[in-house]
């Protein structure tokens, strides 16, 4: 098959041409849900030590303070704000997921687009348009190289996310086609992030840096800074260097007719997505049986090999590590009925009851089990055996979270950080994104007063 040379340009043409009127209403509504979910995650992670340390290190290098750090109030230049908000929105591992690729779409895209929209006084409607386009771009590029790209060790949220951020900010800056081509090329040469970093602070750095680099790509292109015109498809471009799979029909096929942005899903549990069936099943077993940890002989799981590959940390030492431990997650779900951020803290990791129980969790891998499924066998000391099969977990595309569940998730994260009153105000503002005169109404509503911080 002949090497295509028009992928980057064709994609750039679509990005420039795709105004909000060309986006179906259902996709726009999903875009708002994506934004609301992302915002709750950003506020929920705003006071995490990872964010504190990033600000301590990098605030000294910020330029003019034009954009707001969500849920905190510090103001930095747009690029550093994109970085910090990208970190905070992902640090709890509670953000959205494009299940076909395991990309977390909003982290890179919304973090960049909102920081830039605030800087330039852009409306909520324009922000929504840019965000949907950016999500579509990153997910389609992700589809074109998945799973080989991911299997090789690249963290696809960062590597594909930089394109989404460049596309979204490029729309906000009203780049023409040639400059959008350059922006995508600049994004391609900054595509990075390694799965080796999972379980550390650096994992959340990935969507943050993708947001920052994608926005920088658009600003550079706006200034006439050129790049290759085939940054995605050239023999030494993104797809050929970072993957052995290159399916460009995944990028251009049905573009503007079918929407990856409509397939986004929202996590009910604050950890790696492949653990969700196990948590869902163990919570159900807890609710149905009421068993205590001292009654359990063993918890046996039959799961896809990816579960152990991604979340096989048997003895996590920190809260961040525990997000990649199916053993800890199963134990915490069965004993505490918890899969929220409170299940993945240093305190939970060091709980003697959970330590003892997670050592009774045994995983058998089977490639015939779907990645989104699990078979659970709960063996009790009195000889009883209880089985539970989860075909698809809550929060999956088949069992999506409702708006009410997204709101409950938002409040559960944000209220402890900024207080219940401000949380409700921010949530109401976020749902009104398409009608906001300025997107900065969202960032302004996220900033707590000293009194709100004291009562949070």
UniProtKB/TrEMBL annotation:
<dbReference type="InterPro" id="IPR042188">
    <property type="entry name" value="MmgE/PrpD_sf_2"/>
</dbReference>
<protein>
    <submittedName>
        <fullName>MmgE/PrpD family protein</fullName>
    </submittedName>
</protein>
<dbReference type="Pfam" id="PF03972">
    <property type="entry name" value="MmgE_PrpD_N"/>
</dbReference>
<dbReference type="InterPro" id="IPR036148">
    <property type="entry name" value="MmgE/PrpD_sf"/>
</dbReference>
<dbReference type="InterPro" id="IPR045336">
    <property type="entry name" value="MmgE_PrpD_N"/>
</dbReference>
<dbReference type="InterPro" id="IPR005656">
    <property type="entry name" value="MmgE_PrpD"/>
</dbReference>
<feature type="domain" description="MmgE/PrpD N-terminal">
    <location>
        <begin position="10"/>
        <end position="249"/>
    </location>
</feature>
<dbReference type="InterPro" id="IPR045337">
    <property type="entry name" value="MmgE_PrpD_C"/>
</dbReference>
<feature type="domain" description="MmgE/PrpD C-terminal">
    <location>
        <begin position="269"/>
        <end position="432"/>
    </location>
</feature>
<dbReference type="Pfam" id="PF19305">
    <property type="entry name" value="MmgE_PrpD_C"/>
</dbReference>
<dbReference type="InterPro" id="IPR042183">
    <property type="entry name" value="MmgE/PrpD_sf_1"/>
</dbReference>
<comment type="similarity">
    <text>Belongs to the PrpD family.</text>
</comment>
């Amino acid at each position: 098959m002949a090497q295509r040379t028009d992928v980057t340009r064709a994609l750039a043409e679509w990005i420039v041409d795709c105004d909000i009127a060309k986006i179906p209403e259902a996709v726009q509504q999903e875009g708002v849900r994506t934004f609301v979910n992302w915002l709750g995650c950003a506020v929920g992670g705003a006071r995490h030590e990872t964010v504190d340390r990033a600000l301590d290190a990098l605030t000294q290098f910020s330029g003019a303070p034009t954009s707001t750090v969500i849920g905190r109030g510090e103001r930095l230049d747009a690029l550093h704000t994109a970085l910090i908000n990208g970190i905070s929105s992902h640090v709890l591992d509670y953000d959205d997921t494009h299940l076909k690729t395991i990309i977390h779409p909003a982290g890179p895209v919304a973090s960049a687009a909102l920081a830039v929209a605030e800087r330039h006084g852009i409306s909520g409607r324009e922000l929504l348009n840019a965000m949907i386009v950016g999500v579509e771009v990153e997910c389609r590029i992700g589809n074109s190289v998945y799973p080989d790209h991911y299997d090789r060790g690249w963290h696809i949220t960062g590597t594909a996310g930089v394109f989404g951020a460049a596309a979204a900010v490029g729309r906000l800056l009203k780049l023409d086609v040639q400059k959008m081509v350059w922006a995508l090329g600049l994004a391609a040469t900054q595509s990075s992030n390694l799965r080796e970093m999972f379980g550390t602070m650096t994992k959340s750095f990935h969507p943050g840096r993708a947001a920052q680099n994608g926005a920088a790509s658009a600003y550079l292109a706006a200034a006439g800074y050129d790049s290759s015109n085939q940054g995605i498809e050239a023999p030494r471009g993104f797809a050929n260097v970072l993957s052995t799979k290159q399916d460009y029909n995944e990028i251009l096929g049905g573009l503007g007719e079918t929407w990856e942005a409509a397939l986004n899903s929202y996590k009910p549990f604050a950890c790696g997505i492949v653990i969700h069936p196990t948590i869902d099943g163990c919570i159900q077993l807890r609710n149905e049986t009421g068993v205590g940890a001292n009654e359990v002989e063993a918890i046996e799981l039959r799961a896809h090999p990816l579960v152990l590959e991604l979340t096989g940390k048997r003895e996590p030492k920190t809260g961040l590590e525990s997000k990649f431990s199916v053993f800890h997650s199963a134990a915490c779900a069965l004993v505490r009925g918890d899969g929220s951020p409170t299940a993945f803290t240093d305190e939970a990791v060091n709980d003697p009851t959970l330590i003892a129980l997670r050592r009774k969790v045994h995983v058998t891998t089977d490639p015939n089990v779907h990645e989104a499924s699990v078979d659970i066998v709960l063996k009790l000391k009195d000889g009883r055996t209880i089985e539970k099969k989860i075909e698809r977990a809550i929060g999956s595309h088949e069992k999506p979270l409702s708006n009410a569940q997204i709101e409950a998730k938002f409040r559960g994260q944000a209220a402890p950080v900024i207080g219940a009153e401000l949380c409700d105000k921010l949530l109401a503002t976020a749902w009104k994104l398409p009608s906001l005169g300025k997107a900065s109404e969202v960032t302004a509503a996220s900033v707590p007063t000293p009194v709100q911080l004291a009562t949070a």
